[in-house]
Amino acid sequence: MAFAADPPHVHGTLTKYFLASAxxxxxxxxxxxxxxxxxxxxxxxxxxxxxxxDIKPGxxxxxxxxxxxxxxxxxxxxxxxxxxxxxxxxxxxKLDVARQFIGTxxxxxATADPAMTPEANAGQLLAIHGLxxxxxxxxxxxxxxxxxxxxxxxxRPGGTYVQVxxxxxxxxxxxxxxxxxxxxxxxxxxxGPGDFELALTISERGNINLPSLIARVFSFEEAAEAWKATExxxxxKNLIEGPKDD
Length: 246
Description:
This protein is an alpha/beta fold. The chain contains nine helices and ten strands.
């Protein structure tokens, strides 16, 4: 798979025209706005992660990271029938968004204590949310080493962990947990066959409020400011309009 934003080979799609293979193009349904269509790509990442985790009705799920991808992973897990979806993040503002986006019936939120060990944070997480001997599936969309470690301790025996977030290439990892409790660890590289189609189908159902994630739409000329706003953590998702005809 070749990723569009991969300099110096490809510098992204911030251009008026971008040549793509027809095999990688999908028709936007009439029921979706262009703004919503811009979120199908991260939604497809969520679909791929949830399919990789093999989430089924009644499963208990923990998602580390409540940015765009983490929230969409949580939303898709709910769509797949999860009975509990806990979103974990250090920023309360993101957890507030998670409560509104996922809902409070199935959706729960939690924050980790940096002063505690990953094992202690996991124990507290399971106790507060009544997850018993652990979650059926953990999805990490943060890439933070502490989240990876806490996630390993948060699974039930035989549970499945999916790594979506890209962090440091080398981290410390509780390998004994993997062996002693026969955990299933999987990597998640963006998306695969069928993920975009399923993402479009899910979006057309209308159960996931994609527009609510959009903080602001910047003009093409304001692209640099859009990146700065995102770096400052202003909003969950900022969009950039394509160049307009003169």
